[in-house]
Specification:
Nucleotidyltransferase, domain 5; globular; binds 5'-O-[(R)-(carboxyoxy)(hydroxy)phosphoryl]adenosine; binds zinc ion; EC 2.3.1.234; acyltransferase
Amino acid sequence: MRVLGIESSCDETGLAVFDTERGLLAHALHSQIALHAEYGGVVPELASRDHVRKTLPLLQTVLDEAGIEPQAIDGIAYTAGPGLVGALLVGASIGRSLALAWGVPAVGVHHMEGHLLAPMLENPVPEFPFVALLVSGGHTLLVEVQGIGDYRILGDTLDDAAGEAFDKTAKLLGLDYPGGPVLAKLAEQGDPARYRFPRPMTNRPGLDFSFSGLKTFALTTFQDSDKNDQTRADIARAFQDAVVDTLLIKCRRALQQTGVMQLVIAGGVGANQALREGLGKMTAEMGATLFFPRLEFCTDNGAMIAYAGACRLQVGERQDQEIVVRPRWSLEELSALATP
Ligand code: KG4
Ligand code: ZN
C-alpha cells in the first residue's frame, strides 16, 4: 500500500510517500523559518497561507521523486491535530480533496503519534513495548507504548514544553528565531562550570516536568550579568545542561518504573546533540537500547505522518469525508491498532 503523507500542523509543510512493502519512497519539506523570523515566532495566519502555497508543489516533488503518478497512491494521511487550527485545516482540506478526487481512503493522523513512530523509519526498528520521550515545541511527554495507538502517558509538562523553553530562553538571550538549535550551538562555546541551574522536579517522585522556572532562572542570571557574548554562551550551556540532565533523570526513572528497556526519543528537541549523547550513555549504562530518528525526522516532516497513517489505513481504518481537525488532542484518546 502506498500512502501520501501531509504534515501542516505548524511552520513546516511536509509531504512524503510511504510504501508498506518498499519503505519510504520520497519526502520533501518546506520550512517557514524565514517567513516568521522577523516576528520572532510563528504567526498562525501567515503559516496557513504558506501551507496553501506550498502543499501542491511539494506533492508534485514527491510524486516525481518516487517516480509515480497519482493513480499509484492507495491512501492519504494528513495531520489532524494537535497544532494550529488554520494550518491543520489546510492539510486536512487538501488531503480530503485529493482522496475524493483520486477515490482513495484518507485518515487524520495525530501529530505526536507521527513523532512517536518516526524511529520506525530507521533500522533497526524498536519493538513493542517501549518508552518514548517526546520532546517538541509544544509537548514534553514520557509515554509507555504497548503497540500502535496503545499509549499510556507516564509524564507530562506542567507548563512550558522543552522546545518552548529552549525557544523562550534563546529569545531572552537575544538569539534569532527559532531559538532551540541556535541556543544549542552557542552552548558548545559555554563554560559548564560558570553557572549551575536547578534540575526542576527531580527531587520528588513522579515523571512530570516543569521548564518555565529555568527560563526565569536564565532571565535573572542574564539581567544580573555583564551581558557579553561569553556570558550568553555560559548561560546557554547552563540552561541546556539543566534541561538535558532533567530529561535524563526522568527517562532513567521511567525505564526503571516500567521495567521496559527500550527507549525511543523523538520530536524537535530530539535533534539536540547533548541530549542524544547523554541518553546514549545513560541507556548503555543501564543495558537499555536507545532508538531515535535521523535528525531531519526529529523535527516536523511528512514521512512520519505517511508512516503512521499507513499503519492505520492498512488495517482498514477509515474516516468519513467530513473535514475535522483537533487543535488539542491527547495521545491517550487514540485507539489501539486493530490486529490485521
Ligand atoms: O517537533 P518540532 O519540529 O515541532 C513541534 O511539533 O513542536 O519541534 C520544534 C522544537 C522547537 O522548539 C525547536 O527549538 C526545538 O524543537 N529544537 C531544538 C533543536 N532542534 C529543534 N531544541 C534544542 N536543540 C536542538 N538542536
Ligand atoms: Zn512536531
